[in-house]
Amino acid sequence: xxxxxxxMRWGADGPEFGWWSGAAAERASAxxxxxxxAFRVCGxxxxxxxxxxxxxxxxxxxxxxxxxxxxxxxxECAGIDRARSVAxxxxxxxxxxxxxxxxxxxEGLVKVGITRADxxxxxxxxxxxxxxxxxxxxxxxxxxxxxxxxxxxxGVPDRIPYERKRMVRAxxxxxxxxxxxxxxxxxxxxxxxxxxxxxERVPCRVVxxxxxxxxxAVDGLDGVVSGVVEGAVVAGVVVAAAGPxxxxxxAGGRRLAVDARxxxxxxLEGVGAETVAEVAVREVHGVxxxxx
Length: 292
Hints:
Layout: E1 4-11, E2 14-20, E3 26-30, E4 36-41, E5 50-52, E6 55-57, H1 75-83, E7 98-106, E8 109-116, H2 122-127, E9 131-138, H3 140-154, H4 162-167, H5 175-190, E10 200-201, E11 207-208, H6 210-213, E12 223-225, E13 233-242, E14 245-249, E15 255-259, E16 268-270, H7 273-279
Parallel strand pairs: 12-15
Antiparallel strand pairs: 1-2, 2-3, 4-13, 4-16, 5-6, 7-8, 7-9, 9-10, 9-11, 13-14, 14-15
């Protein structure tokens, strides 16, 4: 049976790869720091359909999708996703409570955002937030209004390009520094006029993910694998993971960040030690945005 990778996700015990058989079956495999990972990319890359409500609806045409790109979806399935999406403002009638947060990614890189309350910190882990604090909880539209209020009032964005988050990851400073920056922003936020009355304020309690991500082992970055092609081999020792990024060190010492979004939709197969030795010296074609 062929299993297609659905990308890297954050489970209760840390990062894991998701796998789908093309039918109803799904499974996960844990990503463990300090262990060697080696796989070959098979093909072709296929649309993963639509994931909603804890289940996957297969793509009607089982379409092939381009090798480049972070979304393993055809245009039709991507459109279905966006038709009921908080990010696209097409889910305004969602009755579930939402939380507003401030997330820290590096010095001066703070953003505001919202996430469904029952997801806990999952959204922050998915984004690679090194630290965060909650600001408030309430109805979706109240959370949206607070997000805009804070974006303007604090002068922080609601989106940060992922490349910027990645490039500052090796020089983050101490826990106290990022905690203090978030605490200051939280205090300013609390003094802003115009908070929606239906949004319950939440005290500042900074949660730090540096240990969860293993970022103490990230001492630099020599290349980024932002996409793969059929036949490519990726191999190295896993030292850290943050957001969708897997940080590997190759046999020759080169430090790579593998954007696991580019692995979604591909069948992957494990390779042996001889193959790993053979490909360990291959170049990453384009440190930024290249294919391996």
